[in-house]
């Protein structure tokens, strides 16, 4: 790379009279290097077609460039309809006034250049949906002004640099859909609003301390284990939580389902146990989803989830009657989908003549009851065709609670 930069600098010296004079020389060197190492994949309207070195003002004519006082301050490489291939050059570090570096989805390969750590003014770094490989450079932890880091949908591997979540201004961290492994730091000090690490190979427990500012948290489709920390129920700003498809065990923190802003909860396909708690929730919220299916949750259903629009409690070990509050919520139209199949429930308080809304989906099959005639079930195919659980299973479970769902 040093040889390439030297050649480019010599080239600039030779042809300087014909080059634009209103762009800093080091920035011009970086742009030449970028054009040399990235390739257009669009045959009809390539992204670099506007990068004409004879243009009088690259800042106004080069696609993807924003400048201030002869320095490039924002660079957006490629567009969705103009994808790029090739590799990212180390010479990007010459753009020392850069505050935003964006790479559109494409086929860019190779590692993330370590030299990006020299871009100390960087606020946004987004290199999403390409084929970048190797680890996340630990050196990125020196970017003290970084607000947004999105490296999602690549082929990155290795562990998460432990100091990355100490950056003092980092608000958005998206590393989803890579091959990251190892454990997460137990304390996250950055003032994060959005943390998305889903679809990786992360292991170990959840951080015991998460920032109170957090509004979006997704760690689904990993290999994480251990209990859900009680600190989750102190995140009063949390609106979206997805910890599904991991190996978490133990109870759901008592007040988690009652957080005032939390209307999308995905905890399905873990090994969670215990009951639902009984804290109060806000009224019905359009679009709210709670999925606690395919766990080992047990006990009688509380009405804590009354009014959730789509509620999945199937494939657990719940017993007793379905709360009347849930039935009324379906009848009013507040709850449009209520899946309770594959539990040990013994009844549902539906009177003869009650007509549920046409848009409602209700499934109580394979429980310890014969659904009353008033129940018109709309079950998924995965529920199977057997309406009632065998009496022997219900008898054994009611005595010792050891039969799985």
Automatic annotation (TrEMBL):
Leucine-rich repeat-containing N-terminal plant-type domain residues: 24-68
Any one GO biological process: defense response
KW Cytoplasm (keyword) present: no
Keyword Transferase among record annotations: yes
Leader sequence residues: 1-20
Keywords, sorted A to Z: Cell wall, Disulfide bond, Kinase, Leucine-rich repeat, Membrane, Plant defense, Receptor, Repeat, Secreted, Signal, Transferase
Compartment(s) of residence: Membrane; Secreted, Cell wall
GO cellular component: membrane
An MF annotation (GO) of this entry: kinase activity
Membrane topology: Peripheral membrane protein
Protein name per its UniProtKB record: LRR receptor-like serine/threonine-protein kinase FLS2
Lineage summary: Eukaryota, Viridiplantae, Streptophyta, Embryophyta, Tracheophyta
């Amino acid at each position: 790379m040093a040889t390439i930069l030297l050649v480019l600098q010599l080239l600039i010296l030779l042809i300087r009279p014909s080059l634009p004079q209103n762009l800093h020389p080091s920035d011009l060197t970086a742009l030449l290097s970028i054009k040399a190492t990235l390739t257009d994949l669009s045959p009809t309207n390539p992204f670099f077609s506007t990068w004409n070195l004879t243009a009088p003002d690259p800042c106004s004519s080069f696609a993807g460039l924003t400048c201030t006082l002869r320095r490039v301050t924002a660079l957006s490489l490629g567009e969705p309809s103009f994808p790029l291939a090739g590799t990212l050059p180390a010479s990007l570090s010459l753009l020392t006034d850069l505050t935003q570096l964006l790479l559109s989805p494409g086929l860019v390969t190779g590692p993330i250049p370590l030299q990006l750590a020299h871009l100390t003014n960087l606020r946004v770094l987004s290199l999403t949906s390409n084929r970048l490989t190797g680890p996340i450079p630990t050196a990125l932890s020196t970017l003290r002004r970084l607000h947004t880091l999105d490296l999602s949908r690549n082929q990155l591997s290795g562990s998460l640099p432990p100091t990355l979540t100490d950056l003092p201004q980092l608000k958005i961290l998206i590393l989803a859909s890579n091959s990251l492994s190892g454990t997460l730091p137990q304390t996250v000090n950055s003032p994060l609003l959005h943390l998305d690490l889903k679809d990786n190979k992360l292991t170990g427990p959840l951080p015991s301390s998460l920032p109170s500012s957090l509004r979006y948290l997704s760690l689904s489709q990993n290999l994480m284990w251990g209990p859900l920390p009680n600190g989750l129920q102190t995140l009063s700003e949390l609106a979206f939580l997805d910890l599904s498809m991991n190996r978490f065990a133990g109870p759901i923190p008592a007040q988690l389902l009652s957080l005032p802003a939390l209307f999308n909860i995905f905890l399905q396909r873990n090994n969670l146990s215990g009951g639902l708690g009984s804290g109060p929730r806000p009224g019905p919220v359009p679009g709210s989803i709670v999925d606690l299916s395919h766990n080992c949750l047990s006990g009688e259903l509380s009405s804590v989830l009354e009014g959730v629009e789509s509620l999945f409690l199937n494939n657990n070990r719940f017993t007793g009657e379905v709360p009347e509050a849930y039935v009324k919520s379906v009848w009013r139209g507040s709850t449009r989908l209520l899946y309770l199949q594959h539990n040990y429930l013994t009844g549902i308080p539906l009177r003869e003549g009650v007509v549920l809304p046409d848009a409602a989906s209700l499934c109580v099959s394979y429980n310890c009851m014969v659904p009353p005639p008033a129940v018109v079930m709309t079950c998924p195919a995965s529920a199977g065709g057997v309406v009632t659980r065998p009496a022997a299973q219900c008898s054994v479970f009611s005595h010792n609670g050891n039969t799985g769902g």
